[in-house]
Amino acid sequence: MATMKVDGRQPLEVPVYLDGVAAAGNGQRILYRVVDAGILTVLWGIYVLLPVALIGKIPYTATNLVLFLLLIAYTVGVLVMLFRRGQTPGMALCHARWVRFDTGGPAGKAGLKKYFLESVMAGAGYTRADASGFY
User: How many other C-beta atoms can be found within 10 angstroms of the C-beta atom of residue 18?
Assistant: First the structure.
């Protein structure tokens, strides 16, 4: 057995293949989520604002279609990256990744399920806040 560092707690006993890993602290988790949200916000901002800036120069539908396809490509790229490496772009920038406890490898399907569940729960929270009148 090996040990794993956990900020503010006693070291945990973990299998040998997890030797040297450290659990991500809350600050690191918040940071990579903020980075991921920032990247997505910039991409959606470009998707919304660029066609407005190009009105009259390029057909609106062509610009919109190209930008939409780029957003789809980014989304697929994030999902592939999460499946293969256990990281989103924000996680990669913050040196964090999701691993399987039983093998120490990338989380794979479990990571995709976790990402999907977190996205659904975040969306449900926003919907509930909008419906109740709190912003």
Answer: 19
Nearest to 28 by CA among 125, 98, 112: 98
pLDDT over 60 (residue 134): no
Question: Rounded to whole angstroms, how far apart are CA atoms 71 and 75?
Answer: 6
- Say whether 13 sits in a helix, a strand or coil: strand
CB atoms within 10 A of CB 90: 19
The DSSP call for residue 95 is: T
Tens-digit pLDDT profile for residues 109-122: 999 998 899 888 87
Of 83, 82, 100, 92, the residue nearest 21 (C-alpha): 100
Sign of CA dihedral 107, 112, 113, 115: positive
pTM, whole model, 2 decimals?
0.72
Residues in the chain: 135
